[in-house]
Amino acid sequence: MPNLGILPKSIARALQGATPVFTSAVVLIASASRSLDAQDTTKARPSLVPPTPGIQATQAGAAAQGTVSAIKPTRAPADSVRPFLVFRPRDESWFVVASRGKRMLLDIGRVDVEVRKDSALAQAFREVAAQQSPVPVGTRFTLRGPWGVEEVQSTGIDSWNGRIVLVLQGSAAMDSAAQGKATVSATAVRLPEPAKGTAIRPPLEAVQRSTCDRTPIGGVYAERVRVLRDSLDQSLRDAGLPIYERLAKRVTTSHSMVTGCFGSARVLLAVSLRAGNAEWTRERVVLVDTLGHAVPLAVADLRFRAHDLLHAADFDGDGLDDVAAVGRTYRAGGTTLLKFDAEKKRLVRLAAGFVWEDM
Q1: How far is CA 106 from CA 109, 123, 227, 336, 348, in A?
Q2: Strand (E) positions, 185-246?
Q3: Do residues 155 and 130 touch, judged by C-beta distance below 8 A?
Q4: For residue 24, with 0-12 CB atoms within 10 Å meaning exposed, 13-18 middle and 19 or more buried, which class applies?
C-alpha cells in the first residue's frame, strides 16, 4: 500500500477507496515535486525563451541611468549662442553706421537670443561672433557722415538691441557726433585688406570736411514749408481713409523735414498718415525750394512704407545730399539711408540696418 503520509490530508482522504495503481501514481508525482522544491532555488534557472534585444537594451539602459545622469555634459555657452547668429552676406560692402550709446556702431547682422544679462553668455557671444563674422575685427572702412569723409577701423564686436555690431574707431569729429544727443547715421564702405607684409597704419583723421550748410531754416522759408506741410496733410486725407473702421479711427499724421544740399532746394519734407502700428500708411515726400515750390519724389525703400527723416548727408560722394531716416512698416522698422536721384526725382535705398520687429 503506498505511503499516503506525504500527501495533504484532503488529497489522502480523496484517494481512499481508489485503485492501488492510481494511488501509487499520485504518490510518485508528489514525491518528485517535493524533491524539486528541496533543491537550491537561489540560482536563477536559464529561460528557454531567448531575451528580446530591445527589452534587454532597455533594461541595461535603466540600470545605468544613474551613471549616465552623473556624467552627462552640460551645454557650453558657445553652443548655446552659435545657432542664433545671422550675418550679412560675405560679399556685401556697404553698411549702415549709427550712433548708439555714445559709440559709432556698424551693423553686420542679428542675434536671436538675449546675451546681455548673462556675463558668461555675453563673453561666449563675442568670441563666437568674432570667429564667424564675415567682417573681421580690424577691417577698415571709408565712412561718410554729416561731418565729412574719413577712414575708420573696427576695434571690437558687440550686440545692440538684438543686432550684431562692430565698434568703430575714428577721428575726433566722429567721436563728437557719437557723443551728441541727436542720432547720427553714416555709410561705411569696406576697404580692401592690405597686402601681406604691409605695415598697418592707424586710421586717418577726417580727410574731407563737409561744406554743405545744413543749419535749420527760418523766417519766410520756414513759414512756406509749414503751409505746404498742412496742405499735404489735407491732400492725403482727401484721398480717403482706411476702409476698416478699426483703422480709420486711429489715423494719425506724422511729418518730418531735414535741411541739406539738394540742388536748388534746401528742404526735404515727408508727410504721412499711419494707423495700426503702420499696418496702413500713405506718404508724400517733396523737395521744397526757397520760393516754396514743391517737387514730389518717389520713394523706393522695399518694405519700409513710411519714414521719419533724421538728417541729410552726402552718403555716396556724388556731391548731392542724401537722407537718413527711420523706415517703418507693420510691426517693424529700421535705419535706412536713401540716395537722392536728382535726374529721376526719387529716393532709393542705399543701405539699411539696425532693424527691429515687434512680435
Answers
A1: 9, 19, 38, 13, 21
A2: 185-190, 208-209
A3: no
A4: middle
Distance from C-alpha of 245 to C-alpha of 15, rounded to nearest angstrom: 100
pLDDT tens by residue, 235-247 = 999 999 999 999 9
- Please give the grid coordinates belonging to residue 150: 574719413
Nearest residue to 268 (alpha-carbon basis) of 322, 192, 203? 322
**Could you identify the residue written with the cell 566722429?**
174
Reported as a single tens digit per residue, the pLDDT across 148-159 is 999 999 999 999
Q: How many CA atoms lie within 13 A of 105 on its CB side?
A: 20
Give 246-250 contacts, CB < 8 A, sequence gap 24+. 246/276, 247/275, 247/276, 247/279, 247/280, 248/275, 250/275, 250/276
- DSSP conformation letters of 302-347: TT--EEEEEEEE-SSSSSS-EEEEEEEETTEEEEEEEEEETTTTEE
Query: What proportion of the chain, given as a percentage, has pLDDT over 70?
Result: 75
